[in-house]
Write a structure and sequence with these properties.
The complex is a heterotetramer, with two copies of chain A (about 325 residues) and two copies of chain B (about 625 residues). Chain A is built from eleven helices and 14 strands. Chain A is of the alpha/beta class. Chain A folds into two domains: about 260 residues, 3-Layer(aba) Sandwich (Rossmann fold); about 35 residues, no CATH class. In chain A, strands 1, 2, 3, 4, 7, 8, 9, 10 and 11 form a nine-stranded mixed β-sheet that branches. In chain A, strands 5-6 form a two-stranded antiparallel ribbon. Chain B contains 22 helices and 23 strands. In chain B, strand 8, helix 11 and strand 9 form a beta-alpha-beta unit. The longest helix of chain B is centred in the middle third of the chain and has 18 residues. The relative contact order of chain B is 0.09. Classes of the chains: A alpha/beta (about 325), B alpha/beta (about 625). Chains B and D meet through helix 11 of B and helix 4 and strand 6 of D. Strand 16 of chain C pairs parallel with strand 2 of chain D, so a sheet runs across the interface. Bound molecules: thiamine diphosphate (2 copies), iron/sulfur cluster (SF4) (2 copies) and magnesium ion (2 copies). One magnesium ion binds next to helix 4 and strand 5 of chain A. One thiamine diphosphate sits at the interface of chains D and B.
Chain lengths: ~325, ~625, ~625, ~325
């Protein structure tokens, strides 16, 4: 049940946080504590799903359901949870290597479904927990601290990829603008559909390029600049998407944060399912009784009616 | 005759499957036991495919065997391919318009097979045309050749029901229905019934009915098939895929994820068709994932919410699931994978059968975690094993792998309608409500009370963890958690009795014991009956569970009969069961009958091989069937 | 003393690894044999990590054991954690500024361990401050306590070399270098050499040198370590990761693909560092793939072009490679996977060691294909086994899995400089040039002559195929191709002699035979020597290859000594080797010593466990070490 | 060696083609035969890599090196081949389910590398070889022949995804416009860098919506309409990419084919490697001798020099 007047501290778990001092992840989890408290969510109805990486530990630091999955697989785990119990509020905290490296296939697939799940990507340009290799968000030619040579692969544009994949809420924030981040997280959670937030997160141990300084100098809020990301129909969607894409490319000198794109014209996956299975949202898989006194709830009559196409009566 | 067997062949995509279904229905309705195997290439249209069926008048499971009594050929390739498959006195129906077609000119036939056939033909003095084959069969093998002009038959159909030529040509496969019906004297009403069942009412049904009558008139000859023993009641006529799907519905499955793969995918389609359970407000979510990694992850995620969850796949997909299975193992998540084995390794023989995935299933994923691996030998077993699999997963809170195979999946068989009151559902140890502090991995017993996401705050992680599910690397906890988790192996040993792990058939004091599993069952049972007639006393030990393993019975038979009288019969190269026998009991299997062509073991070749083994051979490799 | 052991501990990321390297170098230069294990959490900064080293004056492989002679603590957590690890008469160096710190207040310590410690402390009458621990150790266990004020030491450093406070604090871990040097009387020139080696010339080197002198002056006490036996010559000082990387360079590797994973990734980084071979025009392409599926696929693709190709991974990554391995198997592609085992299942204990992936390696991927699985027990074996792996892959045209583990990977050891003239390179059967029609899968022998993409037109497919590599589903071809491919198992049996599959150490007529593999080796060798002193005659059978398996020797020892005198020693829960022994020889292992805490088996606990087994226990589970 | 005056037939292998009569794949392979002949390539230096599906059989139908890989994995196989022998001309024939479903992660990754590989996607909107399930190219709500219900997932926009992933040549063609397709394939092969061609390919057996008729009515050539896809620098790249994206969205009434985007300002992966390993292109892994008379080519001196950092001389 929801805590009355929850405070951010209520969402702090008892686990000692072993991120490096100064790590950008602290800002992310702080924003989450605050937002969960403000939204006054039920800890039992909120599932934090995470992948493997420094970011993956987030699930343990939050006092809500926590599912710390496999490297690259947080999204399909989250989807399974959401599909069988759509009542749950599912939030994914995931590393950039995890989501856009090994997990890129799942990232693309979830966009196609518009599942009502919030994905917060901890964008630190490195594979931090394995000691600083280049993540797919690191630009070609950049050489962060533990790389023996400059990075050889081009960076993914996460906003661009999310647009191409069909996410209906796409935003960027920055771990040390906690208020901004918190608001973005709120919007992402409140948005019905697949929401993706690229959270710039300095890794103070392995990334000596994208430091707090680096970001502090560069980030600016596109909403403050007047960008309205909302698309209410298919036509607007194309128009907003392409403009959002143009915005997302400018990453060198000034880095835009804020909501890039929000499309409310696409049905969510549970709505799609509910069309097919009319009781789905009210009576999802997790809530259906499947036995009565140890017996199957399907009795002989239901069985034979249901599968009548397979049954024949012997007639001589 | 107590049973008849037939092969119907034609190009893949040419309607053969439908014809075979119709015949199966018709015979089942008469009270026959039916078993109809489908063999086809990894191809959508044009390659040779055939059904190989046994119709049994007795109340027993029919076995697949050679030779057949009837060969019905849609095309020339079928005639060539199966020239040597018909029994003396049997029948061959073919298209006499193709009499002059030569084997060399059949483009769709694989070169390897063409060479073999041409060699055989030249040895038999067959020139290579259809006509020459037919002549040879009539002359040398006393086979009744029924050459019909398919063109003329279709012409008649056109006249009688007023369809255009292009449409009429779609009915070629229906000629085989008529032919088999005519030869076996199938009741007209049963045929009518079966056609209706397949096509509902409407044009196609009517055309087929009309056409079968046209054909029946043309087919001279008859095979005296005994009247069936079963006198009434209801029968299920299903493929293995369908049997499993039905059982999942009965067994309370509420979430199935899958990624398309032959021969597993049909199960998910059937589930999709019946997703609204009994038409009420309950339903199964059938989820097409982006790959098998996603499929297993989604099934596990779903299971955490309390919904019974499963996936179905085959070798390549299963490989991709191994990492996920390990996560389910360490997190004690009930999840079922129905594993449809096909010919391996790698893509291998995607539409052929095999049993070569046993060891990879038993040892899947790095590290150690408890798991259950059971295997089904026929449609009825597959039905009940599916329900068991779901129950075992919940009871022991661990992954269950249910091994079936392509043979079973694609074979249509008749079986009793399951008494669903026998379907018990056990959800295992669930947490009592209203706990103050819930610990998912409570040490108080090896199987901790389970709660579902949405009810209590809890944590899961693939890392080693403490009772609450948080990561810890501390040594003592590691030992305790490993012991708690792994000692479920003991619970499984205790909870699934030895008697559930095998079935023993045949002679009480046998000279020979066949050891097998899965689809070997049908042929083994038939072979031991046939061997009995020849004075050889054999029994068949059918393994139904690999984890837990039927250690006691196997130890006993090795002790009682000695390794020399035990023959491992499997659809693989290495005799994989032998490895598990050694591992579990220390006994080394010494004699083997193996088949790995992707075609099923036929009872006749099995019986012959057993005799060879009795005469001293240690290993027989079977290769019957095209 | 012939050997000393020390533990140096501190927060992860605090410079401990560097200090340990410096000491290893210094001792190695003096001619000591060095073995230095590193234990750390899956964490970047702040969790407790430590090195555990043995410095041996004799010319033998040092083993890891408890208790230690010196405990050097960077922080309070180290003192608490290792309070019971020091031998009587040993030394503990700690920061006396932290005397009043209490165990309860150490936030980074896991709750599980804190509880255990607090219980122990209260039993020992320790109040829980650092001071109380020090007092107890001095009083009850005769340990020499050296409390230094790290603040003052750093202050002195600041004064002497003119660094600011923030910078000076980075040198805390260097205090431990000075302390160990002082106690062991390490030559100043060796220390200087080692520091230079690590830091080159420059400020950090100078500060360290200056600091060590400051510390050495403050540390009173000494341990009389014998002079080393080795008098001169060159030594290699390497981690297991580095030894494998070097061997890959020597062995002709030209392509390595990887996806970062602990503890495999360091091997790839070393390769990257040495990618330009000898600075000439040859080079290795080290490719960071998008995941392990891509890594194995790329390595296989590369191998098809003729470049020797490998990947390196750990359990989770290996799971993802299984499907690719099957493709390599059916296509007879030489490819090597260096498999760094860590604690499983699932993510498990990512930075801890284990040997629980044996069975999943041996049976990886569905279906059947030939493969080779070898395992290394120390750095020298790892070096030569790597070259063997590359050669075996080419010789038998099949995947080779080379099992190592986290213990080996992260342990720094001294070893002889390899004589690379002993490194033979065999590329196996290559095709003669200028063939008219090349058939990649020529039936003429089980190992068909190999050509590379770019030279002849050829086809590969994961489907069953004919000699030219085109798909065929024909039965006879299937049997022939399976037989050709699988009979490489016989070639492997013949080509890798029994003597290559194991090493046997110790007594000729033992009372007890230890059976082990991998990192068990060092402790087993030491344990059998220690047991000898106590009058117990033991030998150690070290398995170096699982496929092919050392059947003969194992059959022999079971016959000669009987199962009751054979003890399986492994870093896993099930005693997985026992399964393979049964499978290959029919013998059942009955006694086991197992450890699965993620920490290595120490020779002292092993010796004790052996004695317990001799007294009748059937299974001992070890758990020494934090 | 290259055939003198090769004819398309020289590139036809002896394997019987078992695609369904009328299948769009025939047009693709015909265009390939023609183009390989026109380019007069060496069959031994040309590698056709394919995945699993009807499309995957393409490798067997062409008389050149053929590597028929695993479902979803054609790209990393192709990359391994190209990396170790950059002299080889690597062409990937791959299904839409294979490339953008199970293989989407690899698709994204290759774009980041700009490897000089040509990818021809057989876009038939279905998983054909497994009998017609919805591929990621099938639109939501569409119900092709063998679907029991309308498709629940949104279609990927392949052009958009290729843009977001960094492909430097992006085009679409249609299997029954063989001349157009052939020219597009030529350009894709001749382009230095990762080239992606979305080939519309009617599946006559399972797709009763996207028939020849359907496409014949809708396709139009954007080059004929004057679209210049060429970007010569980074700025042009953003501009061309966003315009190309706008074009790619119009798929319902009229379907654009032609080259959407071509960027010549991004170094290829072999160029990037060659910067790091100066002899790489001349002397790639596949061409280096690794033994001399059965011995390693690294002798004791090279070994000790190379690894001097690991070697110490014992000094007492
Ligand atoms: C299948 C698999 N491959 C590799 C790993 C090793 N691994 C652990 S964390 C990590 C990188 C994490 O990077 P990222 O996702 O960016 O998260 P961060 O640590 O930066 O938050 C990797 C590769 C793994 N756990 N599983
Ligand atoms: C790992 C794995 N999963 C599933 C399959 C089964 N499978 C074979 S072909 C195919 C679909 C092919 O669809 P597509 O890639 O679109 O190619 P098409 O047949 O349409 O040309 C699938 C899923 C497989 N071979 N491997
Ligand atoms: S390594 Fe980087 S991302 Fe990880 S905890 Fe430290 S600062 Fe944060
Ligand atoms: S199923 Fe479709 S894609 Fe496959 S061969 Fe037939 S028409 Fe072509
Ligand atoms: Mg990261
Ligand atoms: Mg397709």
């Amino acid at each position: 049940m929801a805590l009355k007047h929850a405070s951010p501290n209520d969402f702090r778990s008892s686990v000692w946080n072993d991120w490096c001092p100064g790590c950008g992840n602290f800002g992310i989890v702080a924003a989450m504590y605050q937002m969960l408290a403000e939204l006054n969510v039920d800890p039992e109805k909120t599932v934090i799903v995470s992948g493997i990486g420094c970011s993956g530990k987030t699930a343990h630091f939050i006092n809500a359901e926590g599912v710390h999955t496999l490297h690259g697989r947080s999204l399909p785990f989250a989807e399974g949870i959401k599909l069988s119990n759509p009542e749950l509020n599912v939030i994914v905290n995931v590393g950039d290597g995890d989501l856009l490296g090994i997990g890129a296939g799942h990232f693309v697939a979830m966009g196609r479904r518009n599942m009502d799940i919030t994905v917060l990507m901890h964008d630190n340009t490195v594979y931090a927990l394995t000691k600083g290799q280049a993540a797919p968000t690191l630009k070609r030619g950049e050489q962060t601290k533990s790389l023996p040579r400059p990075n050889m692969q081009d960076a993914i544009n996460p906003i661009g990829l999310a647009l191409a994949s069909g996410y209906t809420f796409i935003a960027r924030s920055y771990s040390s603008r906690i208020k901004h981040l918190k608001e973005i997280i709120r919007q992402a959670i409140e948005h019905r559909g697949s929401a993706f937030v690229d959270v710039l997160q300095p890794c103070v141990t392995f990334d000596d390029i994208h430091t707090y300084d680096y970001y502090n100098k560069r980030v600016y809020d596109i909403q403050e600049n007047g960008w309205d990301p909302l698309a209410k129909n298919e036509q607007e969607a194309v128009q907003k998407a392409t403009q959002a894409l143009v915005k997302s490319y400018s990453m060198d000198e000034r880095i835009p944060i804020g909501v890039f794109y929000r499309n409310i014209s696409v049905p969510t996956f549970d709505e799609r399912l509910n069309e097919r299975l009319p009781y789905y949202i009210k009576n999802p898989p997790a809530k259906q009784p499947i036995e009565k006194d140890g017996n199957a709830i399907i009795d002989q009559e239901i069985f034979e009616n249901t599968f009548s196409d397979f049954i024949t009566e012997i007639v001589r | 005759m107590k049973e008849i067997r037939y092969i119907l062949g034609g190009p893949q995509g040419g309607g053969l499957e439908t014809s075979s279904q119709v015949l199966s229905w018709a015979f089942a309705r008469e009270g026959y036991n039916v078993m109809s195997d489908r063999e086809y290439f990894s191809n959508i249209k044009g390659r040779h495919s055939y059904v190989h069926a046994t119709i049994l008048s007795e109340n027993d499971t029919p076995a697949l065997a050679y030779p057949v009594n009837v060969l019905g050929a849609m095309d020339a390739e079928t005639v060539f391919t199966h020239s040597y498959d018909v029994a003396e006195g049997g029948y061959m129906i073919y298209n006499r318009d193709e009499s002059q077609v030569k084997v060399v000119s059949v483009a769709s036939m694989e070169d390897e097979y063409k060479e073999i056939l041409m060699k055989k033909f030249s040895e038999s003095g067959i020139s290579g045309t259809i006509e020459s084959v037919a002549d040879y069969l009539a002359r040398e093998r006393k086979i009744n050749i029924i050459g019909l002009s398919y063109r003329e038959l279709l012409g008649e159909l056109q006249k009688s029901v007023n369809v255009i030529a292009a449409q009429a040509s779609r009915y070629v496969s229906s000629i085989l229905i008529g032919a088999v019906a005519a030869l076996t004297g199938l009741n007209e009403s049963s045929l009518d019934y079966a056609l209706q069942r397949r096509f509902k009412s409407g044009e196609v049904y009517e055309h087929n009915l009309a056409f079968s009558k046209i054909v029946i008139k043309q087919v001279k000859g008859s095979i005296s098939l005994d009247k069936p023993i079963m006198g009434g009641g209801k029968r299920l006529v299903v493929s293995g895929n369908d049997a499993v799907a039905m059982a999942k519905v009965v067994g309370g499955l509420r979430f199935q994820s899958y990624y398309p793969i032959t021969p597993a995918a049909d199960e998910s389609f059937t589930l999709e068709e019946y997703e609204r359970i009994g038409g009420g407000s309950d339903s199964i979510v059938v989820f097409q994932a982006e790959d098998e990694i996603g499929a297993i992850a989604a099934a596990i995620g779903s299971s955490l919410t309390g919904a019974r969850s499963a996936s179905a796949t085959s070798g390549p997909g299963f490989d991709l699931m191994t990492e996920g299975l390990g996560w389910a193992g360490i997190n004690e998540v009930p999840v079922v994978v129905t594993y449809y084995q096909r010919g391996g390794p790698s893509t291998g023989q995607p539409t052929r059968g095999g049993q070569s995935d046993l060891l990879s299933a038993v040892f899947a994923s790095h590290g150690e975690y408890p798991r259950i691996v059971i295997a089904s030998g026929d449609h009825e077993e597959a039905f009940w094993d599916t329900i068991d699999a779901l129950n075992f997963a919940d009871m022991f809170q661990t992954p269950v792998i249910h091994l079936v195979d392509k043979f079973l999946a694609n074979t249509i068989a008749s079986m009793p309608v399951p008494q669903v009151s026998n379907a018990k559902i056990g959800r295992g140890k669930l947490v009592a409500t209203n706990l103050e502090h819930y610990k998912r991995f409570d040490y108080s017993s090896s199987i901790s009370p389970r709660a579902f996401l949405g009810n209590y705050v809890m944590w899961y992680t693939g890392d080693e963890h403490n009772e609450t599910g948080h990561i810890t690397e501390e040594s003592k906890n590691r030992v305790m958690m490993m012991k708690k988790r792994m000692s479920k192996i003991n619970d499984i040993e205790a909870g699934i009795p030895e008697s559930r792990r095998y079935s023993l058939y045949g002679e009480e004091k046998p000279d020979i014991v066949l050891l097998g599993w899965g689809f070997v069952k049908g042929s083994a049972l038939r072979a031991i009956r046939d061997l009995k007639v020849e004075g050889i006393k054999a029994s068949y030990l059918h393994i139904r569970s690999f984890i837990p393993f039927p250690k006691e019975i196997i130890t006993k038979i090795f002790r009682e009969y000695g390794a020399d009288r035990i023959i491992d019969v499997e659809h693989n190269y290495e005799g994989q069961t032998g490895f598990l026998v050694a591992m579990n009991t220390g006994n080394m299997v010494k004699r083997r009958i193996l088949k790995y062509t992707g075609r099923p073991i036929y009872s006749n070749e099995l019986a012959v091989a057993v005799k060879r083994i009795i005469s001293g051979s240690t290993e027989e490799v079977l290769d019957l069937g095209s």
